[in-house]
Amino acid sequence: xxxxxxxxxxxxxxxxxxxxxxxxxxxxxxxxxxxxxxxxxxxxxxxxxxxxxxxxxxxxxxxxxxxxxxxxxxxxxxxxxxxxxxxxxxxxxxxxxxxxxxxxxxxxxxxxxxxxxxxxxxxxxxxxxxxxxxxxxxxxxxxxx
Length: 145
Fold this sequence. Notes:
Elements: H1 3-6, E1 12-16, H2 25-35, E2 39-43, E3 49-50, E4 53-56, H3 59-69, H4 72-81, E5 82-86, H5 90-103, E6 107-110, H6 117-125, E7 129-132, H7 136-139
Parallel strand pairs: 1-2, 1-5, 2-4, 5-6, 6-7
Antiparallel strand pairs: 3-4
Helix pairs in contact: 3-4, 5-6
């Protein structure tokens, strides 16, 4: 996966594990991408509001909301733009990946520590493009660079 393709401002970053707890990387990653001007959606199993933005309890819940507000066609267009950013414990990664891939999501970024052998194997078996072992906050382009 090319970084220029990933960091296109038309893409939609779904940060799974987004949180209001500023000590956690789910908070740091969500804030960093949002402040950099990317389209970012918070996915947190509790839902609620993350850093002033509505959070969805799952990828499915977010995409259902898109379909309800707009159309099924808009839902399909949205899926094509998604980059799933996993900031979850490795034992939770497989379930998230299975859900997202089942909905048609094709790209995933595993933050360091979120990877599991099972989740990565699933991605390989199902043709998902994956970035792993790299922090998205370090790899994303900088405005001053």
